[in-house]
Write a structure and sequence with these properties.
Distance between the termini: 30 Å
Number of helices: 12
Structural class: mainly alpha
Radius of gyration: 24 Å
Largest sheet: none
Shape: globular
């Protein structure tokens, strides 16, 4: 039987990527159960909000096509369409807010699962245990994510390079908050200390894991692109009504592709453990301290005298 993966150990680039998939494979059922149980409602809300948003966009596109084909190309028609697009700002804000909540809860869920897995001695935690952690860390991680998001946006505006440099550091800060139960100030300083002299390795691992997740998620977006082109080609009112269920189904399938973000989140945790082991060796010290205190595992029956 394959031994459960040890988190607290040093790894090179290939080992981090490989162990990401080993961990997901070994914990697939309990990990997905925790994810869909805790994040499922937000996942559904995101699918509904984005479906309504897409239906509104398709409807406006049909109106523009109809106006351009007839006599509605006047200033008043253009003003009306501009006003309607402006009315959609509320929908975009709602979609953005739900998305932020979903990504925050997802990040806490996966990192909490990993934290509990380590605490329990490489044993998968229950969904109830993960939920307790999610409730505990939610406000702290949400506030920290907003601050770090603003910092990252500022870095992107400043010639892009500062934003790229901050990208892996912001991820580590959030990982420290959950995996070490740390306040934001401590996690902020620790994130910079951990990544010193290891920026390229951490960035490379997160970039590759994100790229794999992104390419995999593209498969889920294909149905949505098909319905989008269909709605662009068919501009009748009947098609607007008949396409509503199809839009919801394809959007839901696309949203389900977000589950692949589990991959870079597991990679982020493994990068954190790799950095802490490189600098502190806490996992190695714990294993040394356990020598002579644990009984060897054996399938042999006890000796009888």
């Amino acid at each position: 039987m394959e031994q459960n993966i040890e988190l607290a150990k040093t790894r090179d680039f290939g080992e981090i990527i490989n162990d990401t998939f080993v961990f997901i494979k070994q914990n697939l059922k309990p990990l997905l159960k925790s994810f869909f149980t805790i994040c499922g409602l937000l996942l559904l809300a995101l699918a509904i909000v984005q479906s309504l948003q897409m239906i509104k966009v398709y409807d406006l596109q049909r109106q523009i096509y109809t106006a351009a084909s007839g006599s509605g190309t006047s200033y008043n028609a253009g003003y009306r369409f501009g006003y309607q697009y402006g009315q959609m700002a509320g929908q975009y804000l709602l979609s953005f807010a739900v998305m932020i909540l979903f990504y925050t809860v997802m990040l806490i869920t996966i990192l909490s699962y990993i934290a509990l897995y380590k605490e329990k001695g490489n044993i998968a935690p229950t969904t109830e245990e993960v939920w307790v952690y999610v409730k505990y860390y939610f406000l702290r991680v949400l506030g920290s994510s907003i601050l770090l998001g603003l910092l990252l946006m500022l870095g992107m505006v400043l010639c892009l390079i500062p934003g790229i440099w901050l990208y892996p550091i912001t991820g580590l800060i959030l990982a420290v908050i959950v995996l070490e139960n740390a306040p934001f100030g401590y996690a902020f300083n620790r994130g910079f200390k951990l990544i010193s002299n290891n920026w390229w390795l951490t960035f490379g691992c997160l970039f590759v894991a994100g790229l794999i997740a992104g390419l995999g998620a593209m498969v889920f977006t294909v149905p949505n692109y098909i319905i989008m082109f269909y709605n662009l080609l068919v501009h009748t009112r009947a098609s607007a009504t008949s396409s509503v269920p199809l839009v919801f189904i394809t959007t839901t399938i696309q949203i389900l592709g977000q589950t692949l973000l589990i991959i870079p989140l597991v990679t982020l945790a493994l990068c954190y453990f790799n950095l802490t082991e490189n600098k502190e060796g806490t996992g190695l010290l714990n294993r040394i301290n356990q020598f002579g205190t644990t009984k060897p595992h054996t399938d042999l029956p006890a000796e009888e005298y």
